[in-house]
């Protein structure tokens, strides 16, 4: 009688946390929780936890800071507190962990998975793009010293804009995040959108210059942008 084949699973076992936020594989973030070190996370992103961790959906501090976070379902953020290890994911999307050191970051709200609650944050209109393809562009601004976990629809690329003098151009529907100190402007390409980018309507790009980086995902989904009518 044939013996059942037991798959080798030991390689997937959790390891002791080495940082506040770190990847467990490409599609999951592992967060070391401790008393007084709360985290804001996307509602519904918790997939597992160890220890004692509590959750508060849409806390007052979030409602005040994110009054313009328009999703049709209210503010999609929960407060996580307690002691233990917290695991978050977003439907198999790639996860990128960043450690801000007195820095500022502008993030597409749909790509924001989790961040340290002590960071300063709020929903902001992107400066320099008051009118972009007929719409205003809103992002979540984060600043201070602490950890941030982002998601990407596919393996992202991080472009260092300070390596050369040329501007970096990005399809707005592929943008994940960028350093807030970068100079930005919009550009309209007078060619068919089927040839340049895959955005709807006409071919628009955002140009970045200065010292900093831009995170770009391979998936260009116009429904992912946090936009409201300007």
Automatic annotation (TrEMBL):
SUPFAM superfamilies: TRAP-like. It comes from the Bacteria. Pfam families: AIM24. This is AIM24 family protein.
């Amino acid at each position: 009688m044939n013996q059942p084949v037991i798959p080798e699973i030991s390689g997937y076992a959790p390891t002791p946390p080495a940082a506040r936020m770190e990847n467990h594989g490409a599609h999951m973030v592992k967060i070391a929780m401790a008393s007084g070190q709360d985290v804001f996370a996307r509602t519904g992103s918790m997939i597992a936890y160890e220890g004692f961790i509590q959750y508060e959906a849409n806390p007052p501090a979030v409602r005040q800071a994110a009054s313009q976070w328009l999703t049709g379902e209210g503010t999609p953020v929960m407060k996580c507190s307690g002691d233990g290890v917290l695991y978050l994911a977003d439907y198999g999307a790639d996860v990128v962990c960043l450690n801000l050191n007195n820095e500022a970051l502008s993030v597409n709200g749909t790509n924001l998975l989790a961040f340290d609650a002590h960071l300063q944050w709020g929903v902001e209109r992107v400066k320099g793009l008051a009118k972009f393809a007929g719409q205003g562009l809103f992002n979540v601004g984060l600043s201070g010293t602490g950890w941030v976990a982002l998601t990407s629809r596919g393996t992202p690329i991080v472009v260092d804009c300070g390596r050369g003098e040329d501007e970096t151009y990005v399809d707005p529907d592929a943008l994940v995040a960028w350093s807030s100190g970068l100079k930005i402007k919009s550009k309209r390409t007078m060619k068919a959108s089927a040839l340049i980018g895959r955005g709807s309507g006409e071919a628009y790009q955002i140009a970045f210059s200065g010292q900093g980086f831009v995170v770009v995902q391979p998936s260009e989904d116009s429904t992912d942008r946090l936009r409201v009518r300007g």
